[in-house]
Design a protein that fits this description.
Blueprint (H helix, E strand, L loop, with lengths): L3 E5 L18 E4 L21 E4 L3 E5 L22 E6 L9 E3 L9 E7 L4 E8 L7 E10 L4 E10 L5 E3 L4 E3 L3 E5 L2 E5 L8 E6 L12 E3 L4 E11 L2 H9 L5 E10 L9 E6 L2 E5 L6 E7 L5 E4 L6
Antiparallel strand pairs: 1-18, 2-3, 3-4, 4-5, 6-12, 7-8, 8-9, 9-10, 10-17, 11-16, 13-14, 14-15, 15-17, 18-21, 19-20, 19-22
Length: about 300
């Protein structure tokens, strides 16, 4: 009978962990003809001259520039343009982008400008996307994308200011595309690539800072009123790993790592380690050598190892 052998440090979770820092700098750059080599690659990569890249030693992200008729591709959100939205997010140097678009607050339509606020030389790369009240029919919107060294996620902060004389409705929930599966676990949204064997996944959640309201699907702003919301968006090699990056921002987490091989000692590259989180089984995927690693909140978990053509 074919079987799998799982070797993992899974007896207990350590009480504290951080996303590994690999060294190197963080930067925010506008893409021109001379630096197109900085554009992320992959099946869903959509960068062009005039877009912006945020990157550190762990990840790289592309935010669309304020360009005429800018869209992620010809089949996505075709009813409106999407400048200032995230089109690509990948691990640094992997050329494996699998996300089509991430739109903070469901952003769509024209913006006033997209620009670099901080180039990263002081340790933080910051890009802002602004729709002025004049462009937004009285509603000012600013989306800030922030990346620091060591992070495996972006912080996206959305500011809404009603500068009109009438009440305005806002919808702070982000919208993202395209995924084979999506899950919601403890207020974390997780998405897997169209082909899970591409081994690229994403997760986001609201991470309210001091004075910010909790997550809201929609709310009303009276004249002069302001709301600010912050979202963490992570990328990793599996849904479970992306979930772990985001949840580690909210409390104590521990690292789980190990190797999956078959009884002949070969790496089981198509296996999935499923961890039960409430009613959801989130998968972690081994790499080409059979190794896996992810973060989880401190606690005890039930797991199951599955593979094509083998007994669980």
């Amino acid at each position: 009978m074919k079987r799998l052998v799982l070797a993992a440090a899974f007896l207990s979770l350590i009480a504290w962990a951080m996303v590994a820092q690999n060294g190197g700098g963080v930067e925010a750059v506008e893409i021109g003809k001379s630096n197109v080599d900085l554009l992320p690659g992959g099946k869903e990569a959509d960068g062009i001259v005039g877009d912006f890249v945020l990157r550190n030693s762990n990840i790289q992200a592309l935010i669309s520039g304020n360009l005429p008729l800018r869209r992620a591709n010809m089949a996505t959100e075709y009813e409106f343009v999407t400048p200032g939205c995230l089109y690509d997010l990948d691990l640094r140097g992997a050329s494996n982008d699998q996300i089509t678009a991430f739109r903070p607050g469901g952003q769509g339509g024209e913006v006033s400008y997209v620009r670099v606020v901080n180039d990263g030389k002081d340790g933080a790369a910051v890009l802002e996307v602004v729709r002025t009240a004049a462009t937004g029919d009285g509603l000012f919107i600013r989306n800030e994308y922030r990346l620091e060294e060591g992070w495996q996620y972006l912080l996206v902060t959305s500011t809404y200011q009603n500068e009109s004389q009438e009440t305005k409705k806002i919808t702070p929930l982000p919208v993202w595309k395209e995924f084979s599966q999506q899950w919601t676990v403890d207020e974390v949204r997780v998405g897997d690539s169209i082909d899970p064997f591409d081994k690229r996944a994403y997760a986001w959640r609201f991470v309210p800072r001091a004075g910010e309201p909790p997550a809201e699907k929609e709310t009303l702003l009276t004249p002069g009123q302001q709301r600010i919301y912050t979202v963490a968006l992570a990328v990793a090699d599996s849904p479970l790993a992306a979930y772990g990056v985001v949840t580690s921002l909210k409390g104590q987490s521990g690292t789980v790592e190990g190797t999956v091989r078959d009884n002949a000692g070969a790496a089981a590259v198509q296996a999935s380690l499923l961890v039960k989180l409430g009613e959801v089984d989130l998968p972690a995927y081994p790499d080409s050598t059979g190794k896996f690693a992810f973060l989880l909140p401190a606690g005890e978990y039930k797991t199951r190892l599955v593979d094509i053509g083998r007994a669980s």
